[in-house]
Design a protein that fits this description.
This protein has 550 residues and is an alpha/beta fold. It is built from 22 helices and nine strands. 49% of the residues lie in helices and 9% in strands. α1 (2-18) crosses α2 (24-42), α1 runs parallel beside α3 (45-70) and α4 crosses α5 (95-118).
Amino acid sequence: MILTISIAVAVGALWLAERSFAHLGFAIAALCFNAALILLVVADLERAILLSAILTIAIFGASRVKYSHSGLKLIVTDFPLMFAGTVPFFVIQYPLAVAAVIAGGIGFVLAAGAASLYVTGTPVSFELRVLIVAVAFVALAATYRISGGPGAFQRIAAQPRCFFSTFIASLLDPFSWRPVGGLALIDIASEQLPLMPPAAARSPDSPDIIVIQHESIFDPRIYGLPVEPLVEGFLSPPAGRSGHLNVDIFGGGSWQSEFSLLTGLSSASFGSNAYFLFKRGVGRFKNTLPHALAALGYKTTLTSSCRRSFLNYDEFYSAIGMGERIFTDDLPAPFDVDRFETTNSDAMFLDAAVAAHAQRIAGDAAPQFLYLLTNFNHGPHSRRLVAPGQFEGERAFATASLPDTQYAEYYARLAETAATWSKLKTELAARFPERPMLIVHYGDHQPVMTRRIEAKLRLAADPRRQFRTFYAIESLNDRSGRLAAGRGPDLDIAFLGTVALQHAGLPLDEVFATRASLLAHCGQAYFASPSERKRQFHRTLVARGIIDLA
């Protein structure tokens, strides 16, 4: 009777965690293998199967929480992030989710403890237990191979199914256990690509360059939703260039977009290490946007809306050429970091960051590169962060377009960002009329909330839509006419830094000149492009030590 109940619970747990027949055979083999391992300890099948089912439910619960907030399922390589300074950030951003995880963990311990203490079964001899483990392992390996190996599960990483099997597959993926001392490029040719000659400057001066990464901001027009003039002017400056931006991520992992912009590479090219490049990539990238600008006499500065302890930002940004790195716990009064972290308001952060930049450049004729990282529109959008009474008209406009409270909150935050930048842009232009400036805005990824938009609008399937954000390039105090206004081409984020240098009229070294030539071969997709020249370019970068994989 107890064995029947245990099997029934295991069947229910499997279907809850998989919700698909696609990899059900592998999931069954994984649950059985876990039960076999547990059997070595508890000695009876009843408890072993029940405990394996409880473990399956726990893995599903943790994966479901991650998926709800990042759009990706849980894999084993996520765990090192817990020790990289991200826990305080998650607690601040997702207090309810963190509480749910803690409660779920306590529930798992209690359920496992109760099953171990109060469920009894028929003892199995040690010899038979060892044989069961061996048979279960063979079945696990065989079904893993039949399922298609790691590639099959990576292709469905953003789909809400196969939660349990995806996690177990990541455990079996040898790349998950690659020593942290090395990296691997997964789209690299055996032959090298000769580098292009350097490209000469197209402008006599060197404008200040300000690049702003806007957290979780996308263009609502991608989904057919209207925008008001304020927001339209932000996303598509009438005197600037703008278009869709293809990114590698959805729902989270902003640092992967940062990496792509600054190195001119796709984070996806590094496979399972894509999530950890800020840790494992320190000192490995010798030709970056900050390096190139520093070589042209620019002073380079990062100003981040996170604290210095977040992830490995300070060390990584120092290694890629950011001469000065400012974090929220460095910004001077009246900026209050504790108050700021209750909302991550762009009005607060951008005002303080641009004020610090203005003070720094006053009286300094050297050209400046400023990279700003915002965090205001980060999910969840179930939290109302825009101050009461502010941007209520914009919230009502969004609600009329799509009756969804989360989209209305997203749009209200976007409107606040647009209004803040409009004010600061005017102030910068007035205060430094003799300093030409090139401004680049872009969205790092879409928030998970956009899945609600797709469902409510019943849009036709488009696997690339969730990886589109926006870019906008505009100039201040520019009399050279270096920037032609109008709709620009859709770009991949790996090309955005190179395009910024081109619009600034700056010279390109042989690496950036070669990357610029790849635009015609790769179009709006870098990693997804089948271009052999791109793969050969990667081989050249490795062969010349510009990327260190050792």
